[in-house]
Structures are given as C-alpha cells and as structure tokens.
Amino acid sequence: xxxxxxxxxxxxxxxxxxxxxxxxxxxxxxxxxxxxxxxxxxxxxxxxxxxxxxxxxxxxxxxxxxxxxxxxxxxxxxxxxxxxxxxxxxxxxxxxxxxxxxxxxxxxxxxxxxxxxxxxxxxxxxxxxxxxxxxxxxxxxxxxxxxxxxxxxxxxxxxxxxxxxxxxxxxxxxxxxxxxxxxxxxxxxxxxxxxxxxxxxxxxxxxxxxxxxxxxxxxxxxxxxxxxxxxxxxxxxxxxxx
Length: 242
Known about the structure:
The chain has 242 residues and is an alpha+beta fold. The protein has five helices and nine strands, in the order H-E-E-E-E-H-E-E-H-E-E-H-E-H. A five-stranded mixed β-sheet has the order 3-9-8-5-6. The protein has a four-stranded antiparallel β-sheet with strand order 2-1-4-7, with no helix packed on it. A hairpin with a 5-residue loop joins strand 5 and strand 6. The chain is elongated.
C-alpha cells in the first residue's frame, strides 16, 4: 500500500512539473507584451499621446507680391498668367520680389518649439531670369538667409498683440536688376522667384513658395530694339527725312 502511494505521489509530481513547463513560455510571452513602465516610455519632450510638443512643421515661407520699376503686381496663379512687360534694348529693369515668413498659430507655439525653431534656421531664396531657349538657361541670384530668432518671452508678447489664433509674420524681399541687351531681342524671358529653393525648411505649406509651374514666374519680358534717334540715324536717312 505504501509502495502504491509512493508511485502515485511521483506521478502527480511529474504531472505538475510538465504542466508548469508548458505554461511558462506562454506566461513569459505575455509578460513581454505588457505596457512598458514609465522609464520605458518615449520622452515627453518630443511627443505625448494627443499633442505634439515640438511641431515638425512650424514655418511657412510664402511669396506675396513683386515690384518692377516701381509698379507693384500680385503674384500670378501660374506661369501662363505672368505679367507681360515690354522692355527696350538698353533699358535697366529693377525687380523686387516680396515674400512672408509666417509661424503657426501663436497659441500653438510651445516652449519646446522655441528651442527647435527659434534659433534662426537657414533657408535659401533664388530670383532671376529664366530663358526657355533653345537652349534653355537661367541667370539667377541665390542668397542664404536665416529665419527670425525668438524666445518664449517674444511668444507671450505676440499673444497679447496679435492673439492666440493669429500668426506672427515678417516681410522680406529679394532685389534683382538687369539691363536688356541686343541678344535678348526676340527671346522669351521670365522673371522667376522662389523661396526655400533647396527645401531646407519643412513647411506647413509647400505650394506657395513660387515653383516654376505655379506662382514663381511672375513676369514675362519682351525685348524690342531701341528706336533710333536722329543722332544715331545714317546721314542718308536724315537727308530723306528733310
């Protein structure tokens, strides 16, 4: 009897050992899938569950208007609507293109945004003449500039001055001057302008920077030969006109 009880005891012990071994891997797998502790969570300085603490897109650089020889024009919707301007050989053309630097809504700006976006990031602007050709080529002026620097104290001032639903804006411009030459006669030339030309800044709106097919080609120049004055006319012509 005692021998039978011993055999039964050994059998029960072996059964329990096998059951525990089978359950252990499943339990371990469930343990690894539990929610991580606070120390394992992503740093809250970057993200929280419902609110982005540091905005990945903060600035918007947008073309605004342009001035040619003192006359102001709005940016066209596409290059086919570019302002047509007649120019004589020897005439100097003064071009100035204006654009805006715009933040996200002021109420959305956090202290973390100031550290990431208020340090004066670099961007590039380009403006000049584009010749469709053939052969096509361009004569551009390219400049590197920095976005405005600001502190959280500045943000608090903006909230009082503009309001939490407004945007802080800065006005900037690029000047490009050129003189019509004899080789320009009969050729199509476009004044092209765009901001953040090399995509240094990830913007809230990438479609208002002045791409060639959109609002970037602001004017189309048609160069004609300068009318001859009596001083430049041959003597035979002067005699015929008497």
